[in-house]
Every structure is written in C-alpha cells, then in structure tokens.
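Structure (tokenized):
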C-alpha cells in the first residue's frame, strides 16, 4: 500500500463513519480541487453513488468556468445538487464589488474590511442559512438541468468539508469530527482529542458537526491523487498561455492567479516538487483572507 492508498483508505473510512452516525448529513462542494477529490472519494466509498446532498454556496461572483463545471459533473454523476445564495445582500448592494463600484476611492484598508464583510455575508452567512434551512435552497432537476426551489427545509446537522490542515493556519487546528454550536460557531479551544484513530461521534443534541476526511492530505497529495485517478478539474488551475494560473479558486473579484507555466496536472506536480512555491502560501491569491487569515471567518461558520 503506497501513501495515496493509505490516505484514500482513511478518508473512505471517515466518510462511511459520518454517514453511519449522522442522519441529516450533506457535503460542501466549492468546485475546487480539494472538494472535488472529496466528491470522488465519496463515490468510491459508496460504490459509485453519493447518498447525500452536495451543497454549493453561490456568491454570484464565481468564474463562469466553475459554474459550468459544477453543473456538468452534477448531471453526469446524478448528484443531489443544492445551491444556496444570499440574494438579499446582493439586491441591497452590500457585497464588495457593488460597494467598490459605488465608492471607487476606497482605501486598501477599507477594501480589506469590505471584502471580509462580503465573505461574512455571501459565504459564512449564506452557508449558515442554507444549512439551517432558513435561507434559499435551490435543487438541480436532473431531468431538465434547471435549478428549482428545494422543498426540503430541514436543517443539516452534519457537514462534510474538504479542508486540509496544511492549507491554512486555522484549518490545522481542526479535528476529523469537529463540533460547532447550534449557530455553527467554532470554539477552537473546545475540540475533542483524536488519538489512534479513535473519533468522537456521539455529540449532544443540537450540536452541529463538521467532518474533515482530507485533514491529513497535502496539496501535493491532492494533485498526485488527481493524476492517478484521472479526476476532471476546472481549467482555471492550468496556464492557458499567458503564464498564469489559479492555485486556489474563489470569487472572481477577490482572487489573483500566480505566475506559472503549468499547463496540466503533471506540470503542477513537478512545480510543487521543485520547491518553487514552498515560500508562497497556497491561498496567497485569495485577497479576502486578510491579515487575520480565515480564522475570524471560520469561527463564525465559514468553511
């Protein structure tokens, strides 16, 4: 058994344990490389079928390639695809792009604050409302390919997420089974110990739990697994001829590509192994992270 087999086996075990212990379970799919590997693993864990809904939070600012990819795979894999969105914030013009357009003279500090507030509304807030069933839920009709209002408004109490410990500082503090309170808030200092593959899954009623099957994977592991399994990925990860590519995917106005001539999976693996990116944070192009990284957003329920 090689290192990828061992990681795959552990992740499949976590997925099956989560499905066994939590009745109202869903999986977040950001359309990025990590959550797409997670989707692939779920299909393996359940023999080609994904027996739980996939949830995507659409800020309306994802690049078109991401949305096209999401819907193509959802139709091909016959996924129960649910999309949440905070339409009220968008309609009121409280999102970052609308605020910047209304006030183009914003200082860099003001822009950073506005980006963080936008993420708090369009991502953390929309995710919380979607999971609780109080916000908009639209479900893909696999017969027509059209999104329709989802009649299921019951809350999800278990959420599978494709977070990796090495990706960003706050995620290194996670557990495989990580409890939140009823409002999805995360108390970093109150996490159960996980020794020798013994996981706490019996939480008090009302506890919201995040499950992280990819916690011990690295960025290189992810790309090596994508190569081995031939997993389809978004074209934005690859240089299209301008010497740039995205290393991490988010909203169009708040992400920047890196300088790279990697045109395929093999090139990315070689680039990571070369050490060229060793001193550059994986999420360095995600401008919304700000000086505090993701932790302030994640404490309030963000992925």
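Design, position by position:
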């Amino acid at each position: 058994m090689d290192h990828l087999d061992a990681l795959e086996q552990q992740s499949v075990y976590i997925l099956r344990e989560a499905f066994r212990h939590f009745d109202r379970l869903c999986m977040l799919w950001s359309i990025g490389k990590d959550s797409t590997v997670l989707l692939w693993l779920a299909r393996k864990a359940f023999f080609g079928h994904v027996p739980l809904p996939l949830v995507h939070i659409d800020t309306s600012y994802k690049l078109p390639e991401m949305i096209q990819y999401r819907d193509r795979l959802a139709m091909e894999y016959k996924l129960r695809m649910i999309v949440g969105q905070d339409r009220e914030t968008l309609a009121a013009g409280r999102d970052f792009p609308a605020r910047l357009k209304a006030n183009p003279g914003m200082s860099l500090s003001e822009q950073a604050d506005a980006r963080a507030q936008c993420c708090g509304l369009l991502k953390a807030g929309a995710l919380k409302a979607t999971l609780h069933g109080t916000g908009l839920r639209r479900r893909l009709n696999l017969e027509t390919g059209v999104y329709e209002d989802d009649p299921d408004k019951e809350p999800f109490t278990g959420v599978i997420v494709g977070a990796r410990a090495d990706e960003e500082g706050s995620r290194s503090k996670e557990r495989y089974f990580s409890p939140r309170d009823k409002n999805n808030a995360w108390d970093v200092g109150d996490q159960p110990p996980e020794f020798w593959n013994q996981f706490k899954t019996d939480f008090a009623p009302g506890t919201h739990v995040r499950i992280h099957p990819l916690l011990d994977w690295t960025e290189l592991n992810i790309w090596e697994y994508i190569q081995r399994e031939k997993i389809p990925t978004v074209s934005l990860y690859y240089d299209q001829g301008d010497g740039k590519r995205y290393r991490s995917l988010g909203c169009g106005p708040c992400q920047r590509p890196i300088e790279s001539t990697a045109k395929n999976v093999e090139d990315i693996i070689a680039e990571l192994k070369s050490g060229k990116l060793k001193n550059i944070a994986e999420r360095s192009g995600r401008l919304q992270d700000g000086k505090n990284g993701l932790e302030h957003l994640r404490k309030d329920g963000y992925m």
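Reviewer-requested clarification: The two ends are 31 Å apart (CA to CA). The chain has a mean pLDDT of 88.
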